[in-house]
Structures are given as C-alpha cells and as structure tokens.
Amino acid sequence: MAAGSATVCAAQLHGSEATLVKVEVSTSGGIPGLDLVGMPDSAVLEARSRVRCALRSAGFTLPRVHVTINLAPGGVRKTGTGFDLPIAVALLVATGQLPERLCAGALFIGELALDGSVCPVRGDVAYAMLARREGLGLVISVQSPLAGGWAENTHGIGSIGQLRHGLDTLGPPHGEGEEGRFGGREALDFSDVADQELAKRAMLIAAAGRHGVLMVGPPGAGKTMLARRLPTIMPPLTEDEQAEALLVHSVAGQPIDALQRGERPFRAPHHSISTAGLVGGGRPVIPGEISLAHKGVLFLDELPEFARGSLQALRQPLEDHEVRIVRVDGIYVFRCDFQLVAAANPCPCGHLGDPGHECTCAPGKVAAYQARIGGPLIDRIDLVVDVARPDTSKVIRGQGGMGSHEMAELVAQAREFASWREARFGRAPHDPVGAAGLEPRAASAFEGLAEALALGGRAIVRVARVARTVADLEERELVSEDDVIEALGFRPRMTG
Known about the structure:
This protein has helices at 42-45, 47-57, 84-94, 124-134, 178-182, 197-209, 223-228, 239-251, 257-260, 275-279, 289-292, 308-312, 315-320, 363-371, 375-378, 392-397, 404-425, 432-435, 440-452, 457-473, 481-489, and strands at 5-14, 17-28, 33-37, 66-72, 106-108, 111-112, 118-119, 137-141, 154-157, 213-216, 266-267, 280-281, 286-287, 297-300, 322-327, 330-335, 339-344, 383-386. The protein has 3 domains: 5-175, Ribosomal Protein S5, domain 2, CATH 3.30.230; 190-401, 3-Layer(aba) Sandwich (Rossmann fold), CATH 3.40.50; 427-496, Helicase, Ruva Protein, domain 3. Strand 1 and strand 2 form a beta hairpin. It contains 21 helices and 18 strands. By secondary structure, it is α/β, with parallel strands linked by helices. The strands form 6 sheets. Strands 11-14-17-10-18 form a 5-stranded parallel beta sheet. A 4-stranded mixed beta sheet has the order 1-2-4-3.
C-alpha cells in the first residue's frame, strides 16, 4: 500500500480553556504497528488499543502498515481520552477509507468504546468555545448535553461507522445529564421557613448586595433551609454569567442542565472535603467547589468542622474572584466569583445561648471551637446573623412569613436602583466609604460607633457597603443613620 498522511484538528483541556492540537498520521512500509508520539500520557497511549477494536467493530480495516501518529505541538503534554475519535478519523483518511474533505474545517473530540460507539468527554462547552473562535465545526458524541446556541455548527455522532455517510448526515447532540433525566432542583420557597424573619432579612440584604453571610445558631434552627433558598431570590443568570458557569461545570464534568435553564449554581460540600476538592487541583487539574459555585452560592455547613487550611485557602479567592493553581506544566486559572453562605453552631454541643437547652461545653472549648474559623476569613464575611430556635407554635401552625416571590421582587428592585444610582453618580472604587453616600448625621454616628467598637479598616468598608445595600432596598439615594445601625447589627463578631 502506498504511503498516506492526514491531519485532523483535536483539542485538550488546560484549566478552564481548550487548546488546539493537530493529530498527524503517516503510514509507511515496515513492521506493522502504531507509534504514538507527541508527549502523550498513559490515557492517550491506551487510545491505540481502543482505536483498533473500535475500527474493526465498525467494519473498517487496519492495513498491515506502520503507522506513526504525532500530536502537535510536541512539547506540550497531552492528556485525556478525547483524542480517540480524531486519531481514528486521521487513520481512516490516511489509509483512504474516508475522504480527505471529511476532516476539513472540523474539530473532532470523543472517546471510543470497543464496539465503535463515541462516548462523551468532559469539557464540551470549552471545546464549543474553541471551535467558535477557530471557525471550525465541532464533532462530538451525540450524548453530549450541549443545547441551544452551544450546539450551533455542532454534529453529534453515535458511532464511528456513521462517518461513511459524511458529516452532513449527523444531527446535533441531544444527550441529557442526570438532572435532565430525573428532573431539576426541587421547588423551594422562603415561606417554608417559620419564625426566622431576622435571618430572612439578612438573606434579603445578602442577595441584594451580593454579601457573604454566616448564620450562627443551634441545631434544627433552620440554617440549612435558609441557605438552600437563597438562589430562589437571586436574579436568573445573564447570558455572560451563564456562559462562564457552563464552562466551569463542563470542564469539571458536572451536569449543566440546570445552568442551561438559567438557574444559579448552589454547591454544598461536606466538611470533610480536601483543600484540592474545595479550591481545585488533582490530576488532571479540575475546578473545585468554589469554582463550581461561580455566579452562584457556596454553602459551607458546620463551618468550624472544615479543615483550617481549607478555610484559609478561601481568603484569596474571596478577594480576587479567581483561583490560580501552579503546577510543573503551567498555571491553571479558574474563575470563582461566588457568594459565600456559611452556618455554624455556637459551640461544640450547639446549645450555647439556647434557652431550651443547657450548654455542656467548657468555656475554653467554646473559645477554641469558635476560633477554628479564623479571624482573617470571618473578617471577609459581611453579615453575621444569630438564628434562634423557632417558636414551636409558629412551626406547627405553619406561619412562614415573607415568601421567595416577594423577596425576589425586592432584590430585583434594589439591584435596579443600585445600577441607576451608580450610572447617575458614578462609582468610586478607591473610596468605598465615600461612595456609600452617607448622610451627614449618619456619617457622624458611624464614626463614633466605629471608634467605640474599635473597627478595623476592612470592617468599616464592609459595614458601609451593607448600609448602602439597606438604603438601596428602600430606594434611598443617601444612607441614613438607621441604615448604618442595622448594618452594624450584622457586623461579624470576631472583627476588630
């Protein structure tokens, strides 16, 4: 058989982005076999066996020639199983079993099963973005969850044997994730929470101003119920926010059905999670829970039970809204603009200050338990609210108070007013206290209270921002003295 060659476009993930890789195949005389070069890892090397079996199952032949497969650029480490499909296509084109025009202007991504079917891989959204930037069509598994605008110029392939009929015969992918098969998030409403109007007020302020919240109270007070209902009063994802969140979830191999419906992500990792699981890492490097909560809510229940190192690793992402993971093969950057909601018991037994139960903890153990959160982290939380055990009669009678629909309207009005105010008066990022727009009486009272409470610079700025949000909820251009006092009432207990 005469020597042949072919080049097919493929890609691999690096952090939250996909980078282009060229799969070059050349056949020649000599001892039959497949050589795979270009710094492949073990998963890529195993593609040789998967491709052989898949091609035979699909009715293609493997000529007895020597085949050299190069993944260019050769100086970059190649990882993942998404190279199976482009390697198979390039091999079939090089051996004359598929026309050369088939691979022109197309990006192929997919893992091959031994029966020739094409399986999905993580990162579909990242590959779709790459194909869009490069002006290429995308060929991926028909089981991919891409939908809507993300599926434009995308071909879903179920088996490699379908390539005999060309790409034009392939329809768009139509796969479903777990949420698509089993339904979306259950309907939640703040009206289900009885006798917690102060905590619901804190949630309202948090949603309106995107503030972090820490709820402190005994077990069974409703802290988790409150946290899980916060996304119900937040505005739906905008197109840009949705694209960013979809990218992170796709790269991590997480379901994206809820995001495609416009729902904000809600992540609630267990307190036993590792630092890499929380902020990202591992091999291969994938986003952590803080990135999966991008443009949504990260809920940390039993906050003092988390490893201290994991909690302190949150400090920089809370400020910069991104996490940078440095490895030998490069720097991985993941976006993590999330809203932190945390819950904690006041002491190890959980009953400190609970009038219905007696606390059995020694003072030293209480102090040590509360100190596990760490001052630098709690200093970055805007609102701390005490959640008391609800009144028994109100729980039994079902007196829920304000519901999510009413609270969502207030949040939307507050954010709209804040946008109007900033457009009219401008923003002053270098003077956040001045940008709050305090009335003279409010400024005077704030100065005296801040001095009396020995507030530090960061605490003063965060109290001013919370007071500004309270004023936005009332649609007032200037912050009043009452707004400042309410904001100080939610001040973190451990800041100075």
